[in-house]
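Re: your question from the hallway

Yes, I did run it. Sequences:
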Amino acid sequence: MNLDDALRYLFLRLLRADRVAAADAGHSARAEALADLANRLSFTREKESRSYRVAISDSTAAWTIPETDFVFYQRGDRKTSAEPSVSADDAHYDQNLTNARKWLEVIVRAHES
Amino acid sequence: MFSFTETAKIAKAMLLKDRPLYVQFYITARCNLACQQCNIIYANSDVREATIDEIKGIADNLAEIGTCVVLLTGGEPFARADLPEIIRAFTERNIHVRMQTNGLASEEALQAAVDAGGHDISISLDTLVGSKQDYLNGEVKNSWRKAINTMATVTKILPKKGSFAALGCVMSHRNLYDVANVLRFARRIGWHVSLVPAHIARPHDPRGFRSYDRSLVFPPAKYPELEREIEHLKQMKREGFPLYDSTIYLDDIVNFIEGKPLKWRSKNGGVCDSPALYFAIIPNGDISVCCDWRLAKRISTFSKDFPQHYRSRLVHQHVVPIAQACDGCLYGSYPEISTTARFYSAMFDHAKILLAGTAMPKPWPLTADDMMTIADEIVRDHPVPEEMLPATTP
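Structure:
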């Protein structure tokens, strides 16, 4: 399990929702821009600095996102993944969404500018 | 495989289409493999896992709305230490349990699952070439060999009567010619095969289960080979090889890969049958349309209100618009249930398979060495052409 892949899916899912909403509202240029962004985003986990690096290809734009902003229920690599970190509440789900939204706003703004 | 009571329940669900014949429960996102074609371990890792008490609530609710079969999948379901309790939660409520595993479970864990009433198991196997399977599994060395060991264990501990063992085979252009060998292997060891084409998404249109690995996309230049190989598999099925999939489904594999309209949804206005005949549950207990699509609004299947929300079709109001907007999948069970419920030919196909399945010889128990010998013989007699594998292949 690569946590950067987990973050990637979370971001792409939200971007897709925004793209569909834009298309439904007749904002086709914005929808296309969001699709372009989704196809150019890259995600890398930087274990030493306990962060994720999110970058846009063919651009110098990049962000360092602290690991602590997100909780994924898949700890460690495949050898240790049988040791779960399971919380009894749903707070992390909402936290992930809120933080993903916060970072996406920054990324989308940079992509549009 | 199914008891008389279960068969009657399934027939009723098929006929009325008002209760879930089949529910896929993704009990965990954790997995000890990282298979190329699978994204679900990432997609579902943002939600916690339902507790055993919550799962008992889910089982209560699924039983109340008439669920026939629950598939326990993941991630790797055996990564949950409480899997036997989970199985028992459903079997005690007369819901048939199918377990889907990557084949890395220990004998103790398998025995506990069988003792809890799990007599229906599917193990992933895409090729008889060990190094290729290890590569497809995310370059996990010896994972193929371990899966073979697990299959041998299953033939030792699963009761011969009333049980069902299948190999879940994901097909891409990388193992196109390996599938026939997996089918030959299945017949020799008394198992069935269920085939699913690899599903690939683009980043701007992500889906829960689908990989982004574009190298898995079937090259159009190989479409004629694909069509020939599917015809070959259909011929093998006619000859009695235990391929579980209906002819409509096999034809739709070609349609799906080549981007043509899918036949299996054609009798329901181009839409699947979620949530009327099937739906999925993600690890935290929320209902989802399927493994690809979540709902915009969270609806918990362990909530006391769930049966009422299902029966009053409130759940349907959230699910159907998403299903209607989907361009379709070929994830094995969903299409097969729809075709069986809506096409007489598929219904007969599956009835025939199930009847033949009960009569199929099960030369159990087999040792891992027996299985390795069988696999070696098949690969020797039916060599697979070198497939497109990157240079990193072990």
